[in-house]
Amino acid sequence: MSGWSDAAYGMGEAVLELDRVSVRYPEASAPTLREVDLSIEEGELVLVVGRTGSGKSTLLGTLNGHVPHFTGGLLTGRVRVLGRDTATHRPRDLADIVGVVGQDPVAGFVTDTVEEELAYGMEQLALPPTTMRKRVEETLDLLGIADLRAAPLRDLSGGQQQRVAIGSVLTTQPRILVLDEPTSALDPTGAEEVLATLTRLVHDLGVTIVIAEHRLERVIQYADRVVEVVDGRVRSGSPAEIMRDATVAPPVVELGRYAAWSPLPVSIRDARRAAAPLRARLGGLGAPLLTSASRGSSTVDTLQGVHSSLTSASRSSLTVPTPGIRATGLRVDHGRVRAVRGVDLAVPAGRVTALMGRNGAGKSSLLWALHGTGTRSAGRVAVTDGSDPATLKPVARRARVGLVPQTASDLIYLDSVGAECDQADAESAKPTGTCRALLDDLAPGIPADRHPRDLSEGQKLALVLAIQLTAGPDVVLLDEPTRGLDYPAKTRLAGIVRGLAGHGHTVLISTHDVEFVADAADEVVVMAEGEVVAHGPTPDVVAASAAFAPQVAKVLAPAPLLTVAQVRQALAEAGDVG
Ligand SMILES: Nc1ncnc2c1ncn2[C@@H]1O[C@H](COP(=O)(O)OP(=O)(O)OP(=O)(O)O)[C@@H](O)[C@H]1O
Ligand SMILES: Nc1ncnc2c1ncn2[C@@H]1O[C@H](COP(=O)(O)OP(=O)(O)OP(=O)(O)O)[C@@H](O)[C@H]1O
């Protein structure tokens, strides 16, 4: 029996070995992985990075034989896991040593309730009931889901489901953990807690962890090594080495590259040390840099002005914004769970508003209730013309309110990407090619004849976003729209939603992605336990927040700048070209 108490291998020993591994999916014109050589040692935490659709999940899938045993396609070369060859050992033959958390937690669930799911893997390994009981209790506490132990899995919020998926693998105590975007649905604090737990497993117990993640700002400081997948090939090195010219980089690295800091910092702590001269330059733009308590100084005005001009707040600064959608006394009860508790909220037209808050705070329930198709137990909802989306016929509702749900792929049902896009153009009477152009903006180069089922997670999301944005309803509601999207795609999505707002649309985005909020949102609404607890301009809500501050704000505080683009603009406007 395997487990964290019996480390069979010593540090420095290769536990995962890929030897000239290539993977080609059926009907794909080129291999997804090409001749990959990679060796991962006991007790390493390896972060796999790359553009959307670059092959990260495919690489992770080879590590327990999921690729090609379950995905189809041809794998050549050799993969060995603690000496076992995946050609002859199927995933179930490796379940005692490799635990896998996939990108879609729901797809991996095999039981009905939280407790059953946490116990399932251990039952398969025939662990004694007393051990199982103890580990279930520990894991419920570790992941903050003890209150949900008896809850049906289908009733959980997205982040609660992701916590259970991670927990169900931790209980089996595998020597190797493979996690595909494990924090994409977690709130920032929850993500930090999960990563701290994983790091402890690596440091204290020599567990080997391989994580693919797009939100590098959450993970990179914990990584021993970064593996980048580009065009099917991998290169690996220390985080700072790979980040020097990687195709994807977190804001702190982007800032370090811009300011030419050497060595390149990958953590906030290192960046703050390197940033003293930059803070001084920003401080020298006007009067001394001020905290929010003394706003009104020229510097703060200049810097706040930079935020406004980069987002769309300035567009409506002269007029009181018209609400694009308004909720009054809105309440949502799911059985005995009161998810939304009498919310009054006016979401302004012509702006991008972010909806943030802990896992289970009630954000998705609010979005569905605003959309008019979700549960509403009490209260009223009205769009600009006074109509209530819940009482409209589907066609009329689609013109006024559109929702991209967390489980975006539920909205795709045709058999090719091209057919989905053509239908989106036709249904919304847009010129042919509108949807395709939006898709190419978000995830370039997907063949039109590819079956949506075979898209990577980020590509699926990009397709659903493109379809919904083609329809261009008055009110656009997006539920966690950056899962699986790389930084360039997120920048383009920010541009698209700002463009919609610029044309008078109302955009409300529920998200845990603090960097996306800093880039895209004019305003932020924060929910806690079913209530709105804060609503204001983005810098006011996020800049000094422990949970929601983006990396640039942390590095450059007290300057109220949130993104690298804002830093560039502040310096350029001041004629400081460095
Ligand atoms: N079963 C399949 N058949 C054909 N093509 C596939 C299949 N699975 C994946 N692909 C393609 O292989 C490429 C790599 O997909 P993969 O899921 O490994 O990417 P990824 O880097 O994990 O993406 P994301 O960042 O969106 O999670 C994509 O272009 C995808 O469309
Ligand atoms: N169908 C349902 N039945 C019972 N409880 C539900 C149901 N849907 C949601 N809940 C509960 O309602 C609360 C709010 O869930 P909701 O999905 O709105 O949260 P959220 O803020 O969107 O969370 P996340 O950030 O994790 O996506 C949670 O405690 C959740 O468990």
TrEMBL record:
One of its GO terms (cellular component) is ATP-binding cassette (ABC) transporter complex. The keyword Hydrolase applies. Residues 16-256, 325-554 form the ABC transporter domain. Pfam families: ABC_tran. CDD domains: ABC_cobalt_CbiO_domain1. GO terms for molecular function: ATP binding; ATP hydrolysis activity; ATPase-coupled transmembrane transporter activity. The keyword Transport applies. Keywords: ATP-binding, Hydrolase, Nucleotide-binding, Transport. Its EC number is 3.6.3.-. SMART domains: AAA. Gene3D superfamilies: P-loop containing nucleotide triphosphate hydrolases (3.40.50.300). PANTHER family: ENERGY-COUPLING FACTOR TRANSPORTER ATP-BINDING PROTEIN ECFA1 (PTHR43553:SF24), HEAVY METAL TRANSPORTER (PTHR43553). Belongs to the ABC transporter superfamily. This is Putative enzyme. It comes from Nostocoides jenkinsii Ben 74. The lineage of its organism: Bacteria, Bacillati, Actinomycetota, Actinomycetes, Micrococcales.
